[in-house]
Task: structure prediction
Amino acid sequence: MNSKHWIEKLQLSSHPEGGYFREIYRAEGIIAQPSLPMRYNGGRAYSTTIYYLLESNDVSSLHRLKSDEQWFHIDGGALTIHSIDPKGNYTAHHIGKNLDKGELPHAVVRTGCWFGGTVNEPDSFSLVGCVVAPGFHFDDFELAKRIELVRQFPQHKSIIEKLTR
Result:
C-alpha cells in the first residue's frame, strides 16, 4: 500500500509540522490543572493518540511538546526522529521493524526536547502511531524558530536547517 491509500482510508489531514495526521483517541478523563506541572495552562486529557504519516519528500519540522510522546511504527519504511534535549544532546531514534539495522518499533521523546522526523528511504513513507500523556493540546505545541535554535545549539546547525521551514 502507498501513502495515498493510507491518507484516504484513515482520513488524514495536513499537520502544521508537515505530514498528515488524525486524532484517533482522546481519553475521557481530565487531569485538572492543579494536579499538573505549571507548564500547562489548564486541564488535559489523560492521554491522546494520533495516526501520523510522513512521506519521504517532506519532513516533520522541529517542534516540542509539554508532554512526553511515544512513537510506534505501523507501516512503510523506517523513520528517524531527530531530537535535541534542553542540554543540547542530539539523539536519532530509528523507528521501524528492521532490528538488524538498529531500528526499533517504539521510541519516546521526552518533554522539552526539540524533535522532528525524516523518512529514511527515498520514494517511500512511514506511518506511525503517536501517544501523548498528559494528552495533546495545541497550546502545548511549539514550532522551532530556526534562527533562535541555531543560536542556542550551533553544533546542530545542519539538522536544524534541514528540519525547520
